[in-house]
Amino acid sequence: MTVPTGRRERKKAATRQKIADTALRLFLERGYDEVGIREVAAEADVAVTTLFSHFASKEALVFERDDDFAQRLTQAVTGRAPHEPLIPALRHEIQALVRHCTSDSAAPIWRMIDASPALRAYEESMRLRHAQSLATVLAADPALPQTETACRTLARFVIDAYALAREAADPQAAVEEIFQMIEAAWEVTCPTPRP
């Protein structure tokens, strides 16, 4: 997450975080469906309009780190060294994201998400957005002369790797297993030139 530099930006970020923390606390205490937007705003001591200036929907309150997820994957592609291979960079980032989302502190949040059809649908739409963003970044990388279809396929596999590993009994082993398959498919599609 980008650290805000100016006073106004820091204040906005603090308000956003306060709203998100308050919402999550209320959702976990009373249940997602039992808490309304007005209650979250009142508890966070902000106007409903302020809440909506930070979050587009009630579901977005649960996934408040959504932008960070997309930025981290984009950075894994664009921030690699000139000859650093793509798949290990993506694997490393997915491992870190999976480690975070499978921590003990995240378990109640995922149980809440899994129990709510609205949150599951929002998560699915979020995954599709992330896959599209990642595919766009992959297609724009001049070091990856791939078709749009190959880039979109790789992006979907990477995003799905995160979701599948999160649900596995051994999430880190699942990341390794999935990325072995992704890397094998990518090498067939994009063979490394021989000197």
At a glance:
The chain has 195 residues and is mostly helical. The protein contains 10 helices and no strands.
3D architecture notes:
The protein is mostly helical and 195 residues long. It is built from ten helices and no strands. The longest helix is centred in the N-terminal third of the chain and has 24 residues, at 7-30. The protein is globular. 23% of the residues are buried. The mean pLDDT is 87.
Poorly predicted regions are none
Shape: globular
Radius of gyration: 19 Å
Please trace the helix and strand order, writing H or E for each element: HHHHHHHHHH
Helix coverage percent:
over 70%
First-to-last CA distance: 40 Å
Question: What share of residues are in beta strands?
Answer: under 5%
- Helix run count: 10
The tally of strands reads 0
Q: How can the largest sheet be summarized?
A: none
Report the oligomer. Answer: single chain
Q: Would you tell me the structural class of the helices and strands?
A: mainly alpha
Q: Tags for this entry?
A:
10 helices, mainly alpha, 74% helix, globular, 195 residues
What is the topological layout?
Elements: H1 7-30, H2 37-44, H3 48-54, H4 58-62, H5 66-78, H6 86-101, H7 107-115, H8 117-140, H9 148-167, H10 171-189
